[in-house]
Amino acid sequence: MEPTKNSVWSIVAIPTLQHFLVDALCVCCLYMLLAADPFTNLLITFIMYNVLAFLTQPLTGWLTDRIAHKHWLLLASMLLLTLAVALFIFLSLQGGETGGPTVGAVFVALLLGMGNSFFHVWGGQQVAVLTQNDMRAMGVYVSTGAFGLAVGAVFASWWLLLALLVGYLACFAVVLHPSSVGRHAKWETHTMEPENTKGKGLQSHSPYRWFFLLLILAFVAFRSKAGITFSAGLEQTQQMVLMLGFVAMAGKAFGGFLCRWTGLWRGVAAMLIVTATAYILPLFSSLDLSPFLGLFAINCTMPVTLYLANKLLPGHEGLSFGLLAAALMPAYLLKILPHQVVAEVSVSFLLPLVATIVIEWLVLWALYERRRSVILSSVAINVLTNVPLNLLIQASWLDGLTQLVVAEGVIVLVEALWYFCFVRNKRQSFAYSALCNAISFLVGLLFQFLYVYFYY
User: Fold this and answer.
1) Which has more confidence, 139 or 353?
2) Between the chain's N and C termini, which has fewer beta carbons within 10 Å?
3) Binning pLDDT at 50, 70 and 90, where does residue 66 land?
4) pLDDT, tens digit, for every residue of 231-240?
5) Nearest residue to 75 (alpha-carbon basis) of 166, 183, 171, 8
6) Model confidence over 267-295: pLDDT tens digits?
7) Rounded distance between C-alpha atoms, residue 366 and residue 193, angstroms
8) Is 189 exposed, middle or buried (0-12, 13-18, 19+ CB in 10 A)?
């Protein structure tokens, strides 16, 4: 049974509203967390949230494409966000810790980030599939998040936080109503129709599709930097933050309609011309509207990049949405972090993460594990465990050998459960987890000893 035009748009409306509620809730909770506990480390908290909310989306998107019942992702999001708000309320009632960033604040950021990640890829995958990769629907869906961020930051308060959570739970109940679940069960295995996955020069079977996808990801990173550039010179008052959020939302929502009216490449040409004009206009005029014009035009390209990524990866709409979301992060990190801190973050987090992924892949290979799903799952779980572990170490919360061994033991259990989801063998999954973590831990310890021996 094919979904009708009216029924599809009625379902798209709910994820669109949820997108606003989720982004507003996450930012509102983070800002209130910082206000309630002035000793919370702003940098660590926001980096933790953004890393988990955006950089995990390729992983959660890949998971979304694999599972048959997509509403489990929405259920996970609801539970994580509700737990985050409940933990924040508990911390507020207990009173903030002093003397440094609180462990509780990091766990709130962790829950918010993962809840946000699960929701975004669920909504992006559902909207793409239900509307057959319609740019208008995808643009409308992604647009409300920008205004939600602004509303959550400006009006952060208890009443707003609770209202957003109640609204999100109400939308969750509507989506998982028996009649909605029945419709989703009929459509969740629905994929793009052949004529919508065949584009000029962008066929999914083209050997150059990964090259084109990298170009799209590079453009998304550029778009993120351009958006930051247009708003950088403006005074960040409450009214200005709301205005910028509204302009970005309007651009994302309008881009799909513009391309539908003018044709894809004519629409893209118009967007880029207006963006370039907004860049150079201040050289010849003192027109105050150029930042808003540029922000609007560059955000118009958002649904275009989603549309093209879905054409390159048909049947993997969750993954393509997640990859584009992750591409937003480099510009954001470069904005909030000094270059010296970027270098330190790379050494402290990226190098250990890459080294751990490589070591554990070699261990699995030595154990004659060749299944792609297991290898990829190893990469995914290492991202989800290695980054938080290093954050705890950098914040000096794991400064003793006993604490570190306990943390590693918890990770072994978590990863064993993760591997069991793929290998369906208790002894094998525990063996994979124990050997991978033990060898990567010992190799890391060996390199630290060598570093101390040769440089001190």
Assistant:
1) 139
2) C
3) confident
4) 877 888 889 9
5) 171
6) 999 999 999 988 887 766 665 778 899 99
7) 42
8) exposed
